[in-house]
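Human: Note token order:
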Amino acid sequence: MKHKPLGITLGFWLLAACLAGLALNGQAAPPDLRLPPLTAGERSPQLPGKFVWADLVTDNVEAAQKFYGSMFGWTFQTMNNYIIASNDERPLCGLLQRPRPADGSAKPRWFGYLSVSSVAKTERAVTQAGGRVLAPPQNFPERGEQAVFADPEGAVFGVMKSISGDPQDFLPDEGDWIWIQLLSHDARRAAQFYRAVGGYDIVENPASNRLSDYVLVSEGYARATVRTIPAEHKQVQPAWLLFVRVKNIGESLGLTRQLGGKVLLEPKPELFDGRVAVIADPTGAAIGILEWGEKALKGAD
């Protein structure tokens, strides 16, 4: 399928979703895996700061596969104990089976990987800025080098230096990742951490009715947004929230319930004209969904 180029401008301010619960500890893929390259064909340029991959850590991979396969049309390939999910034959993410802690202190979750020019330098920047190393750098023959960290608030994220380069910027198809947002207790401090780690330019949203406090920008592209969790939502824990493009938000919510998932945040007129929501799969992992049409594309300028 041919993709449309997309220049996401600074007018694209996305929502803050209310998301409760801690995540299962982020862990990298087993080192003996042969992971597919991020891009096919000729080598693509690297796009530092762009989120290029995602992993789901869950205690029920079978249930997750069934849900996402029916929900987004994803297909799956198993490599040892690591499952690669693809959309229209493009690898998007991996699924990892991990037992849930008996004390209930963690639950399944998604986390994304951002592109970096040096994993080693990023690791040093993370620790110097108060973050933690959850999975140290690993090399994979066809994929490149990657690692998993936690920021000072505990939000899990990965970094990757791809051998094949990074996926180009294009308007995502239905079933593709379309956006990512960080929920933080202190958006300003969180944005400064990721500037130190990812080299982002930070743009503050001055609007009084803003849906995001800061935008992380690299090479003129908005890569992610950061939002301070409202004080009244004390149960919400800092976390990255990934969004998938869907054809129709209402139909997707109906399918979510039919497949055994839950709706965590219903569409609201003030949130992207009611075309965005947050759901949880049957294992409890939260994910955002976004209906993106021509009207939304014009509104992003």
Observations:
- The CA atoms of residues 192 and 202 lie 8 Å apart.
